[in-house]
Task: inverse folding
């Protein structure tokens, strides 16, 4: 497969699984995510950004930033705005609420969020 | 009126003549369409330049720097500028002017902006060699040439221009004297007590002042070129003399053609700036309004506006005299005079305050009934100038105890300021550029909320700068009115400016963001305060930025030590100090780029950028670059980027000094230095300036006598020329000054503020910056140098530290749970290299893949 073909194959897989929810997957150990940072997990062809905050609270949402068409959110800086926890996209600095996936600057855009849990120092996400 | 062609001839292309032309073009952008044909005649060899800042010529400004003419301004249709063109005669009956080369030009309207000439007292010997006047760039060039061989210099005239001229002589390293005919300095603006304070201030600076001295002859000297003999037969010997004893209007053409002349000379004008011949206007220093002549530029501009309005058929704008209030810094001494400074108004009374310890003198003159302020004199400290000038001009009511207006604030007593809200909208805050309070209000409403933005949008404070504190006050008041918050808080998590946070970090020895947040902030932080704190911590402590407690603060670029691109891939820029690279180095870069299929491009900073690296490739690429002898170029950081250089004296036949050598040394010294924004340097080996150092934050240009240091230049969206801050430095001196400059910038600038904006927002401007950096006026020099040395000593190659730390290295992968690559990063070929595929290209490719997946 060419590079382009390979890319598209993964996209296709993504679309197929979009409606299938409910399966829990292990992702990584908690220590693989440094505090106040994010990682990206590839689960069923889907890119999911998982963040660990100071209090070990975990959040999971799409890694894809629709404002830049790039898979980058796991590399954004986390923090809070008006008390609501957010991640800032590293490309054009849009903020997305970690809890809801809603874009702070453009409420019409909302990212999919995923249930995420810590079980015995292992991070699980439900996709 | 506009159907018929109107021929306008403007005699004089000085500041006022050129301003008139700008006003005319503002009204009629298309002169042709407005049926105007304009000829401007200038007798000097160059178009209009800034005579107000003429003395900056001595501190390195060039004739081009001083030029007031935008490129192409005089090239528009319907407009012709003739230089070296001197008018010899006006024929009012024929409506023509004749030039000295006998050209005859017809006019329908004539504008005389002939300015003035320096008055030279009729002293025997005044025509001797090395006797100068101070008016044109040519005069200054002649003075500079003479100054090179002279040891001493005398300025005849202790007025405003004379003292500026004395500063120039002092700066040339001459033993400098000021000889004044009147019993005190600046007799026109300043009263006796003020003159005394001013004198001791000037003498403190090492200039000898001689007042009540009438020169009777200049003859050969015994120890120097000239001997000046005074009326009482005392004498003074000197190598050069500059006459700066006042100006006289250039009204000879007007006299010869029979126009009415004022009682003390000058072309008599009415409220429309018209002379006694209504087809002839006179504006600026050559004009006399009610027998009053104005040697300042603001009234000249006002006349130009009036004349231009009238000529365009408007009769509402009139010239009604001018406020002669002035505030300036003479040899570093504040001098201000407002309104009736001498208390000539009948029945007026005054309050005075003298501080002989710090040499400060302040006086206010109030009306007989004590209700209005009439005038003021401020020497040594002119902080109250804006308040006092506005109170006088707008006839505002005085506070109950007016003396507190000039007394230093004492415990528990609030100093009565001018409530800016009391100012009418029409109040002119910047008289140089005629900017009213109302215009500032509009600018704020349009979103200009920093003094830098106000300056560039309204032009207020851009000429003499005297109004900047008042304009700032008005700006803040307007912001409050519009419900904007007037604070410089970094973000919602920290009620401090970047500068304040910097101090907190230093003073309290704070080393982590958590500690800073706990002590001084609230919440979790955000993408504003985290990178700012990271930058401050790096500037102060210079720890590895990807340490566990620092990594989460970094912007994505710093976080991955590369520059993130639109598709989420990164670019990699190895450092090439001074743009110098060996053939082996180039080959290594080429091989690495080829191996990882990276797009390569030579940058504007003279190095190679390699694009299209995936996160997981970065450590491997760095490892190979490190093995080839490269290190991080910090292209991703708010830090020193490049030191651009020309090839310099090593190879270039014009080179004066080794620019590459210095560039390499500087780049290696400051590499990795974290700052409020990126920093770029340039080093040129001669004044041809091939490295474009004057467009950089820090620029060095080699001269025969050492290095000239320029600061605060900028390319990009708003280009700004760097300004000369010190001349003829040795390499070691230059590095010390740059240490101080950079650290002072790092300490005091706002987040993401380039040096140019920082400089534009600095009260006191370049003079203040020079005082702090070069003259060490804050006594911070040693501390700033030591701090820089700390940063230099703790430099590490971030790439190397990152690849050698397994914990850090682990983070460089696209997925925490898979070795796959990001499928959204897709490249196509263009001009034999890769580029990111567009969204359309990726979509199109999607048609094929279904087939591909079924394979």
Result:
């Amino acid at each position: 497969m060419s590079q382009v073909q390979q890319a598209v194959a993964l996209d296709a897989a993504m679309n197929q699984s979009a409606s299938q929810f409910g399966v829990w997957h292990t992702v990584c150990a908690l220590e693989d995510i440094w505090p106040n940072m994010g990682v990206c997990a590839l689960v069923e062809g889907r890119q999911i950004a998982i963040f660990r905050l100071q209090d070990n609270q975990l959040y999971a949402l799409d890694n894809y930033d629709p404002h830049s068409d790039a898979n980058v959110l796991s590399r954004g800086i986390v923090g809070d705005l008006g008390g609501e926890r957010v991640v800032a996209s590293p490309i054009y600095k849009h903020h997305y609420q970690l809890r809801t996936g809603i874009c702070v600057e453009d409420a019409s855009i909302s990212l999919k969020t995923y249930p995420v849990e810590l079980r015995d120092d292992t991070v699980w996400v439900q996709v | 009126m506009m159907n018929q062609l109107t021929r306008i001839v403007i005699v004089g292309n000085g500041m006022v003549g050129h301003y008139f032309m700008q006003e005319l073009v503002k009204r009629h952008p298309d002169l042709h369409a407005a049926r105007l044909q304009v000829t401007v005649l200038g007798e000097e060899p160059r178009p209009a330049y800034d005579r107000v800042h003429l003395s900056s010529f001595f501190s390195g400004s060039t004739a081009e720097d001083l030029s007031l003419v935008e490129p192409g301004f005089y090239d528009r249709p319907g407009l012709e500028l003739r230089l070296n063109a001197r008018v010899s005669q006006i024929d009012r009956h024929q409506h023509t002017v004749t030039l000295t080369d006998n050209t005859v030009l017809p006019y329908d309207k004539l504008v005389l902006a002939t300015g003035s000439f320096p008055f030279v007292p009729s002293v025997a010997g005044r025509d001797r060699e090395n006797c100068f006047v101070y008016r044109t760039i040519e005069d200054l060039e002649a003075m500079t040439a003479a100054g090179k061989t002279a040891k001493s210099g005398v300025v005849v005239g202790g007025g405003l221009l004379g003292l500026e001229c004395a500063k120039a002589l002092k700066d040339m390293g001459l033993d400098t004297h000021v000889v004044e005919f009147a019993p005190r300095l600046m007799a026109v603006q300043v009263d006796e007590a003020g003159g005394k304070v001013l004198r001791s201030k000037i003498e403190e600076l090492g200039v000898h002042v001689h007042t009540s001295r009438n020169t009777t002859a200049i003859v050969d000297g015994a120890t120097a070129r000239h001997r000046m003999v005074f009326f009482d037969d005392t004498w003074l010997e000197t190598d050069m003399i500059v006459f700066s004893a006042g100006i006289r209007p250039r009204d000879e053409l007007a006299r010869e053609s029979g126009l009415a002349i004022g009682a003390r000379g000058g072309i008599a004008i009415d409220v429309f700036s018209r002379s006694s011949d209504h087809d002839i206007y006179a504006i600026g220093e050559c004009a006399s309004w009610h027998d009053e002549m104005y040697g300042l530029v603001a009234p000249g501009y006002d006349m130009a506006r009036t004349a231009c309005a009238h000529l365009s058929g408007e009769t509402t704008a009139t010239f009604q005299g001018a406020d002669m209030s002035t505030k300036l810094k003479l040899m570093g001494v504040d001098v201000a005079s407002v309104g009736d400074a001498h208390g000539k108004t009948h029945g007026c009374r005054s309050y005075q305050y003298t501080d002989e310890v710090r040499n400060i003198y302040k006086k206010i003159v109030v009306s007989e009934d004590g209700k209005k302020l009439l005038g003021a004199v401020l020497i040594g400290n002119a902080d109250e100038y804006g308040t006092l000038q506005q109170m006088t001009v707008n006839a505002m009511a005085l506070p109950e105890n007016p003396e507190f207006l000039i007394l230093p604030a004492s415990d528990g007593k609030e100093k009565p300021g001018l409530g800016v809200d009391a100012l009418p909208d029409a109040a002119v805050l910047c008289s140089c550029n005629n900017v009213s309070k109302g215009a500032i209000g509009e600018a704020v409403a349009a979103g200009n909320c920093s003094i830098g933005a106000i300056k560039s949008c309204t032009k207020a404070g851009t000429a003499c700068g005297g109004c900047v504190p008042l304009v700032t006050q008005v700006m803040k008041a307007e912001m409050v009115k519009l419900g904007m918050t007037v604070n410089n808080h970094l973000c919602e998590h920290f009620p401090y400016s970047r500068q304040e946070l910097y101090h907190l970090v230093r003073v309290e020895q704070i080393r982590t963001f958590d500690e800073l947040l706990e002590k001084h902030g609230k919440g979790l932080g955000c993408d504003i305060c985290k990178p700012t704190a990271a930058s401050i911590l790096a500037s102060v402590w210079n720890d590895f930025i990807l340490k566990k407690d620092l990594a989460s603060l970094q912007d994505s670029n710093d976080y991955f030590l590369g520059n993130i691109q639109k598709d989420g891939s990164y670019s990699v820029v190895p450092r090439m100090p001074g743009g110098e690279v060996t053939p082996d180095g180039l080959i290594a870069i080429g091989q690495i780029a080829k191996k990882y299929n990276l797009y390569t491009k030579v940058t504007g900073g003279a190095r190679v950028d390699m694009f299209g690296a995936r996160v997981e490739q970065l450590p491997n690429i760095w490892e190979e670059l490190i093995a080839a002898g490269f290190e991080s170029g910090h292209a991703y950081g708010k830090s020193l980027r490049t030191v651009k250089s020309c090839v310099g004296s090593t190879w270039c036949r014009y080179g004066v000094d080794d620019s590459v050598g210095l560039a390499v040394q500087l780049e290696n010294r400051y590499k990795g230095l974290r700052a409020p924004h990126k920093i770029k340097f340039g080093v040129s080996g001669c004044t041809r300036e091939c490295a474009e150092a004057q467009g950089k934050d820090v620029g060095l240009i080699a001269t025969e006598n050492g290095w000239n240091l320029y600061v605060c230049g900028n390319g990009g969206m708003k280009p700004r020329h760097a300004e000369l801050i010190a001349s003829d430095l040795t390499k070691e001196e230059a590095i010390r000054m740059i240490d101080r400059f950079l650290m002072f910038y790092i300490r005091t600038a706002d987040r993401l503020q380039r040096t140019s904006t920082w400089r534009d927002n600095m009260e006191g401007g370049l003079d203040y910056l020079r005082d702090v950096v070069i003259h060490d006026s804050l006594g911070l020099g040693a501390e700033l140098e030591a701090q820089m040395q700390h940063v230099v000593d703790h430099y590490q190659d971030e790439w190397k530290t990152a690849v050698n730390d397994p914990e850090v290295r682990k983070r460089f992968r696209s997925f925490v749970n898979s070795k796959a690559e990001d499928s959204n990063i897709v490249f196509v070929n263009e001009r034999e290299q890769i580029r990111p595929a567009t969204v359309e290209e990726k979509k199109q490719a999607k048609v094929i893949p279904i087939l591909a997946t079924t394979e």
